[in-house]
Amino acid sequence: MENLKELIKNYLSTQRLMSVATYGETPWIANLYFVHDTDLNLYFLSKKTREHCVAIDTNPLVAVAIADSHQPLKPPQLGIQLNGTAQAVTLLDQVKWMFSMWNKLIAPDIAEQLKNPKQFLETGAAQIYRITPKRIKFFNTGLWPKEQCQILNL
């Protein structure tokens, strides 16, 4: 299981965009940039008024898909599907960590990097969310040509 977790972490390190499915009043899906931590939690930044954030406030259950759209139709193919829960991150230390990761991985060349986590929390226009996976299905037809995927239950 630890080897599978490492394989998933390595794959997540190569990706930056995920699709997050939510269900509030209706089903909804949003494409979002993300970073991850060593426990395979995914973090994203979004305005609180976006449809997916409003849905998360109502129903924290989410599903996520991560795949490189440039990969060929033939093997090897890689991707992740997972389900779990999403919640707002409100602790200053977690926001500082996410800012650091975001600036390093998502926005290294952007002049307006995320700064001042305390002010960010106080302003309240945008929010950082953490997705805690419960079940991860990792597709890797190069490693597992017959089974095609492995499942990690957390």
UniProtKB/TrEMBL annotation:
Positions in coiled-coil regions: none
Pfam families: PNPOx_N
Annotated Pyridoxamine 5'-phosphate oxidase N-terminal domain residues: 5-136
InterPro entries, sorted: Pyridox_Oxase_N (IPR011576), Split_barrel_FMN-bd (IPR012349)
UniProt-recorded name of the protein: Pyridoxamine 5'-phosphate oxidase N-terminal domain-containing protein
Organism of derivation: Candidatus Dojkabacteria bacterium CG_4_10_14_0_2_um_filter_Dojkabacteria_WS6_41_15
